[in-house]
Amino acid sequence: MLLVLISLFAVAMLAPLIFRVMRRAAFYVLAAVPALAFVWLIANFPRFIHADQSALNEAPNAPPFEVYEWVPVLHLELAFRMDALAAILCLLILGVGALVLFYCARYFKNDDPYLGSFGAQLLAFAGAMFGLVTSDDLIVLFIFWEITTILSYLLIGYARERIFARRSAHQALIVTTFGGLVMLVGLIILGETAETYRISTLLSRAEEIVANGVLVDIAILLILVGAVSKSALVPFHFWLPGAMAAPTPVSAYLHAAAMVKAGVYLVARLAPSFSETAYWEITVLGLGLWTMLVGGWRALRQTDIKLVLAYGTVSQLGFLILVVGSGTANAAMAGIALMLAHGLFKAALFLVVGIIDHQAGTRDLRQLSGLWKSAPKLFVVAALSAASMAAVPPLYGFVAKEAVYETFVQQASEGPLELFMLIGIVAGSMLTVAYSARFFWGGFASKKDVPDTKFKPVPWLFLLSPAILTVFTVVMAFIPGVFETIIKPYAGLFPAAEEPVHLGLWHGFTLALGLSVLTLLVGALLFVTRDGVASLQDRLYPLLDAERFYRLTIGGLDQVAVWVTGRTQRGQLSFYLVIILLVACLAPGTVMLLYGIPEPGNLTAFDSPVQLIIGACVAVGAIATIFADKRFLSVLMVSVTGYGMAIFFAVQGAPDLALTQLLVETITLVAFVLALRVLPPELGPSKSAIPKPIRILVAVLFPIIIVIAAIASMSARIHTPISLEFPHLAYEGGNGKNVVNVALVDLRVWDTFGEITVLAAAATGVASLIFVMSRGDRRRRATDVAPGTIGRTRRTGKTTEQVAALSVARRFMSSTTDEWLLAGRTLAPERRSIIFEVVTRLIFHTMILVSIYLLLAGHNAPGGGFAGGLLAGLALTVRYLAGGRFELAEASRVSAGTLLGVGIAIAAFSGIAPLFFGGQIFESAAIEYSLGILGDHKFVTSTFFDIGVYIVVLGLVMDVLTSLGSEIDQRMESVDENHSHSKAALHPVGGNK
Predict the structure, then answer these.
(1) 32, 508, 528 from 505: Cα distances, Å
(2) For position 826, what pLDDT does the model report?
């Protein structure tokens, strides 16, 4: 299972590269992946559906399974299992997925610029659905659930230049994400209540878990909200028709065979154990029946044949959830059979719509006419699939619908609710017949006063996928016993029925058969009288419009957001600081007032006079910042406080923290100074909306409360600090003596991985603010400019010709030397500092070597990837300051964006690699070796993660230098040059003045 999952995602990652070479033919390569997985599934199907019966009481259909430890401390596991229900869903996911990808090779054009990303997303979606249905852990299931949400958003918004596609994608994302987050709360409540997140264990202990009462009832209700939103049941049904803005292959896969089945799957998974909970019946049966009727009714008024199918899908999803959620063995048998039938005929019909749209250029049934003559093969495929949707015998749709009727006819005698459900299902099925006829008539019939639609011939490769699905729809009707066999293990999880329902074409002259005949007749009558039905709909529609409510809700949220933003986001830093600091004061201050302040124990002002001196320097720097009248002086005084903290760390015996603080403060100072170049040097008068007395009060109150809170929290300690165990944990668990570094790259590696991801995002944000068209990775090299002209003062009186001649001469003279520092070639003489250039030549390589030493030695001595990366970045900063932006371009041949990506990739791979050796994610190993006379050594694999951190930090510094340094340099030079040209135009050399 894990191999199939990895293969789907791995090929999805490679898809853009494959499309560059093969163009749209790459879809055939992508289709081969789920096709091979489908073959594997069929070959192993007996093993999946005939699980050891003795294990059913302990964990329903648990074997075969695969479990890999993920985060042991949180009891998170990558747990997967393939039972009968999962295997049946995988038939649709892999089989239909392969056919849809095959179909895409003829649907799209070769020159489509987004084919690579589309193919990757569609194949990754197949992987996410495969992971979802095979997950045996609630959290893992939720992760795959949300991956499908994100990918569906991207696929629905494929036509990104169309506002309707973007709006529909946002709508689907908001609705399904809302449902997913509600479901997450339910999953956590259920997992914590049951003290396990393993789904198979939950199902086996359901009776014991349900005994917890209201809490479990609420958890199941919240989980069902997620299922209802994903499967587009009322009141969330409106997002699915809107999602028809997606390309038709997306609709055929996501909205017919895969994504929307996730909700059906979840209901089916929980039904054997939790169908007796308090809110199950009204949620599953009530919303299911209402959705079936609403979707069918709305389908009858659509003029776009794709929307006819979309609303029909809404109706069928309500039908499916109603049946699979009924909680009986017969309903389980009928519901899963219906789910298979729906996946086949609805996917085929969507693909037919795609062909019609592709070949005729329209989907409007008012314009389509005579396609039965111009596309006879397509006509046959559509006729069979539409007939199966309408449950016309002898097709598999009829077999499944007959089983549903048999089930609910048996239940109808149990009470009025069951009878009402049967009546509702029959009424909904009549609407199904009517909209099936409307689709078929709208797409293929010859219509009065409508000329025959011009229709290009359909290639066999284009028709092959819907034809194969239609063949299965026909063949499965004649071998129903085979599919009854594969469904039976799942149905066996329910109490055995007194009169088991069997799948078959003929059960004799039964009440169910009579209802089927009545359904077909009334459905046909509804279609024949469609004009009268449309008139009735115009008078009744809409009684309730969920989409309008959604738009009103989103509009209201937008207005509230505008109101809140207008009153909080005033563009004044002082206002934001006052709000932040007030909250930071009030939160701990209120707690201390309510509960009192513990008396401090051993409270001392300072340990040594050195601390007092450093503290005084920091205080002087902070106060001087307030009274500074120039920006540079203000920034310099702020840096005094930072360097003071670094000295504090060093004095207190924390050299690693001191080193890191020193490097961070230096980089920050450089970034500030570079940014100040585009700001006025003088600090103007304050224009804060906050009165000065309030600002003074907050400035004084905040440090006082924070100090008191820190003293109180330390005085209130009753347990031994966990930090006392860190040296032992670092050496025994992380194989290192540097507690800080081991904690960052081993003990709390997940935090560090998140932090470097944030660093990459911050670097991208900085670049995005500066660069408009691109990130600035393509920087001009020194060979692109005339020597000695960068920063040249234009008041020399030389003509343009003289400057150019001087540039050529200098280029000729410098071409005979091989200078390491390019300042001599690029910078104007008045901008150069010979002393700085000499110092740079002396220290640059040393700084790089020391940075590598810090990287490699950081596990046992002060340093690490973060400190090493900062020092390497400072080395580049020195080169930039000495030689300018062209020197930076020569020194950094690899772009900042590439470094950030490579660094995160190395860090991620170092976390995944242990899985291939039977370890856990981010587990580190120590390799001891001897180098003879050089002694014994030990290498810890977490160093690879530290290398990733090193590269990410270096990329961040490069991004800052490129954005705040090189780019601003270039813009200032452009302004200077334009100014000079303007003066030359006003006073031309040799002309009249």
Answers:
(1) 34, 9, 27
(2) 67
561 occurs within a structural domain: no
Query: Is 582 inside any structural domain?
Result: no
Q: What is the pLDDT of residues 176-219, one digit of tens each?
A: 999 999 999 999 999 999 988 999 889 988 889 988 889 999 99
Give the span between the Cα atoms of 319 and 306, in whole angstroms. Answer: 20
| Residue 887 CA neighbour count, 13 Å, CB half | 27
Instruction: Calculate mean pLDDT across residues 43-67.
Output: 62
In this structure, the answer to whether residues 232 and 287 fall within a common structural domain is: no
Q: How many CB atoms lie within 10 A of CB 709?
A: 18
Q: Does residue 436 lie in a domain region?
A: yes
Last residue of a domain, which of 637, 658, 681? Answer: 681
Q: Do 670 and 783 sit in the same domain of this protein?
A: no
- 276, 210 Cβ separation under 8 angstroms: yes
As beta bridge partners, residue 630 has 682
* Poorest-pLDDT segment among 385-389, 736-740, 874-878, 964-968: 964-968
> Domain boundary at 628, 650, 681, which?
681
| Cβ-Cβ contacts under 8 Å for 539 (sequence gap 6 or more) | none
Chain position carrying tokens 């999880």: 493
The kind and range of the H/E element at 321 are helix 305-324
List, for residues 463-507, the tens digit of each pLDDT value.
999 999 999 999 999 999 999 999 999 999 999 888 899 999 988
Give the residue from 175, 79, 181, 173 showing the smallest Cα distance to 131: 79
State the total domains in the chain. 4
The residues near 76 (Cβ < 8 Å, ≥ 6 apart) are 70, 137, 139, 140, 197
Domain containing 453 equals: 278-540
Q: Are 956 and 756 in contact (CB under 8 A)?
A: no
Which pTM value belongs to this model? Answer: 0.73
- 348: which residues sit within 8 A by CB, 6+ positions away? 252, 381, 385, 465, 466, 469, 470, 473
Whether 603 is in a domain gets the answer no
Under DSSP, the state recorded for 286 is I
Summarised one tens digit per residue, pLDDT across range 569-589 is 877 788 888 888 988 888 888
